[in-house]
Write the structure tokens for this entry.
Amino acid sequence: MTDQKKEIAELLAEKVEALEVEEIENMIEIPPEGSMGDYAFPCFRLAKSMRRAPNQIAQELAEQLRGDGRFSDVRNVNAYVNFFLNREHLTSDVVSEVLKKGKRYGGSDLGKGQKIIVEFSSPNIAKPFHIGHIRTTVIGNSIYKIFDFLGYDTVRINHLGDYGTQFGKMIVAYRRWGKEEDVRREPIKTLLSYYVKFHEEAEKDPSLEDEARATFTRLENGEKEEHDLWQWFRDESLKEFKYVYDLLGIEFDSYAGESFYSDKMDRIVDIMKEKGILKESDGAQIVDLEEYGMPPALIRKKDGSTLYITRDIAAAVYRKEHYNFDRNIYVVASQQNLHFQQWFKIIELMGYDWADQCVHVPFGMVSLEDGTLSTRKGKVVFLLDVLNNAVEKTRQIMREKNGEDADIDEISKKVGIGAVIFQELSNNRIKDYVFSWDKVLNFEGETGPYVQYTHARAASVLRNAGKSAERVMSGEGTFDMSCVTGDTAYELIKLIYRFPEVVREAADKYEPSVVTRHIIDIAQYFNRFYHDEHILVEDEAEKQAKLAVVYAAKQTIANGLALLGIEAPEKM
Ligand code: ARG
């Protein structure tokens, strides 16, 4: 597909000596309205070198370029040269590209040979997989998909929180109040109730905390009884997590969690000592970060136990050595900003020149309508309940609309789960938001079901077109696009044309919502097109040209949804 912006920049560079193609490309703007053309070039910066008023320069350039067949018009408005592309050319170019690339449209091999680690989800064992985890899970999965689509060699890691002093508490609580059959029946909810009870009781009897610490030390020393309990909690929890991942269609390449690094930390602490960055403070080992405007990082406690941050440092070193990444991305809540700043700095101080390849991708908080989430107090909305609810609600809506369809189970699963994911990925990730059932399940407006429905509508147009559509979709032949150059069709085509650029932008910003918003736009313009144009007309050539546009829109929406981790049903 032709890079229109670049072509215009090249043309301009021939006329404007003072600027390089690349500079011109960066200066070219997309006007806010179609009536002002498809691209605009501001001439202010040329005034000095060309010794003329910007308006005059714009006028001269417009006159010189007007005759070029690539444009239907080139006009000057004040100091701008406005370019109107030849609609028919662009439409044919875009449609044939989508037909040729299909599922790959929007992707590329930009990242070939580069390895990217995306760490996401990383829930804590024996704690609920609650609504607070959904953000890292779906944002991370989408970021992985976007990089994968751009040809990067990607590795998905789930850094399970399966280690730390809380397991001392869990074991103490289980021994005092636990029942094996309860844990087997409903592991996470049961374990959570023990955890909550531990905190209630520890307020009355602080000696429980000491007992928990001692128990954790036994676990760290590999005592069989503690280790077996821990292993059992881990296995049961992972079963539940995997059930949720299956529902969401998410997979990981590695579940190496915090415990995986328990035997890799001595070496890390030794390196810190060698580099002279470790200090003793009250018997504990710390790295002083005052010089960098941060509080000290506690690396090893007085009793010898290590911390969350120590494990993160060990994990990064391991990942560099094991995977040799080019980039190591962490999709973790913004509450942990300081934690990541601290240990990225420590990595640098340890002399690792790859410190700057580690990237923290933060996101805002989810809160409930009546306050924040708290695992300690047991105030949680379980992700599994949210997903099941969304599917059930969708089933009701589908039943009211279509009656008892044979595919109703499958479709309500795709749409219900898709609705939850889509809503998570609709806004800038950094924004805090309030979780509300009404919003998640609202099927009107800029939602997942709306976009999926648009996709299904396009699919149905193609189905109804029978043989004519078959020819279009076979990817053979060219189409006479002169009959689909109306404003709505053209706006739709331009959005489809921009899709590959949007995918790259989403990768650059680690921001899936860029894709989400773009496919909402495509869906809206497709629906306008569908409304404004009679598609299944008598004239075969015209019909096929229009069907080709329908197909291009449908494929682009499907590709966008796939990048978000959402399925695109053919029927709804
Ligand atoms: N398990 C942690 C939590 O749920 C998140 C882990 C984030 N990843 C990391 N490498 N620190 O809060």
Notes: The first helix runs from residue 4 to 15.
